[in-house]
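Here is the promised in-class demo. Please do not try to memorize the tokens; focus on the logic of going from shape to residues.
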């Protein structure tokens, strides 16, 4: 029963957030941001609690696998566009990932944060599973890394589309690569709402960014330990 209630609450919160976002478009009404406090409010008022909701979240999380595989459909449909711009795609994602890592570590150093936090911020462009697996390589705590990755992806998803529009970036390919590189899965989901090509580009950006972070994690960890 708790499982059904938890899943129902999640779907209702998502549906309501989509409706609100459609009626009042704003960076603050994107589903990934708005549905989270709605779920928190519902499980608190309903007495379900965090432990009761855990079963539902596990059931929903299972669908992330099929959902990720489903990204291959728009990727296949628009493969020729991605192939034609292959060098630019790879260069843009690698450059964006490197800048994201350097700015994260650089700002952490300027703020006087400890080396483990610097390393955790350096991994923020990877997907959560990849970043958690790399946490020990940079001397960071896996739960801290997970929190930073999710928060960073959420921020990029909320602010990213509006910022790209403000900068005059209209190309579906460029928007998708930016969202996928910076906000991984959450950014890819947002990109798919803009269109198939944007979503396909975001999925490529997400995958290449995770690969780039994995390759750069060991050198980053070496520098932080010096």
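The designed amino acids, position by position:
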């Amino acid at each position: 029963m708790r499982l059904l209630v938890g899943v129902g609450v999640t779907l209702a919160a998502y549906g309501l957030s989509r409706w609100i976002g459609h009626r009042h478009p704003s960076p603050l009404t994107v589903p990934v941001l708005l549905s989270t406090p709605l779920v928190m409010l519902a499980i608190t008022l309903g007495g379900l609690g965090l432990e009761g909701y855990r079963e539902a979240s596990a059931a929903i999380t299972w669908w992330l696998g099929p959902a990720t595989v489903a990204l291959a459909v728009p990727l296949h449909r628009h493969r020729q566009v991605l192939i034609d711009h292959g060098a630019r795609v790879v260069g843009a994602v690698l450059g964006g990932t490197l800048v994201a890592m350097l700015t994260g570590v650089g700002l952490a150093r300027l703020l006087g944060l400890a080396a483990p936090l610097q390393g955790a911020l350096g991994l923020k462009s990877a997907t959560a599973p990849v970043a958690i697996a790399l946490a020990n390589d940079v001397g960071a705590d896996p739960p801290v890394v997970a929190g930073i990755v999710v928060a960073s992806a959420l921020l990029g998803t909320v602010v990213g589309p509006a910022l790209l529009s403000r900068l005059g970036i209209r190309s579906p390919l460029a928007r998708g690569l930016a969202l996928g590189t910076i906000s991984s899965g959450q950014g890819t989901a947002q990109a798919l709402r803009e269109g198939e090509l944007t979503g396909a580009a975001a999925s490529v950006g997400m995958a290449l960014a995770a690969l780039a972070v994995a390759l750069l994690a060991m050198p980053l960890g070496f520098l932080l330990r010096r």
